[in-house]
Amino acid sequence: MDMPLSLAVEGWLLTCSARSFSPNTIDGYSRTLKKFTTFLQEDPTIRSITTKHIEAFLISCQVSRTSKLDYYVGLSSLWTWALKEGIVDSHQVRALERPKADTRQVEPFTEADIKHLAHEISGPSPYKLKMRATVMLLLDTGLRQVKPAI
To answer: Torsion-angle region of residue 64: left (phi > 0), alpha (psi -120 to 50) or beta?
Structure first.
């Protein structure tokens, strides 16, 4: 079956939705696959795409190593699905070396930082109470705030 890449991408994203993938995951895959199709400047069949096309795309992306890994994972997920569906005969992405993610050392807050933060959110106002609860949750559990919860 010679399926255009655009149709394969559409099918994969529908499958992601049907499998209840998180909206952030689907959005990330969608952005990656849109960048890839834009890079190709045409709509080739998915079978005609080689490791050279994928490697050239990854090389062309002037992003962090972690973002490059995200692109690799998004493309790999498409090829894994396409292989299981019989749309492709081989997994072109896995033939490439998986990019390494950036390693960043997280610098913890100092005691002075925490005292300053506690002072800034002290007080009886409902807003400050909500902020204090949020900050304490983040500090106590080590959670990260990805999107503002307030």
So the answer is: beta
Class of the domain covering 5-84: mainly alpha
What is the pTM assigned to this prediction?
A: 0.71
Render pLDDT for 23-61 as a digit per residue (tens, 0 to 9): 999 999 999 999 999 999 999 999 999 999 999 999 999
Q: What residues form DSSP beta bridges with 45?
A: 4
Q: Where are the domains of the chain?
A: 5-84, 105-150
Name, in order, each residue with C-beta under 8 angstroms of 143's C-beta and a sequence gap of 6 or more: 137
**Region for residue 20 given its phi and psi (left: phi exceeds 0; alpha: psi -120 to 50; beta: otherwise):** left
Are the CB atoms for 16 and 28 separated by under 8 Å? no
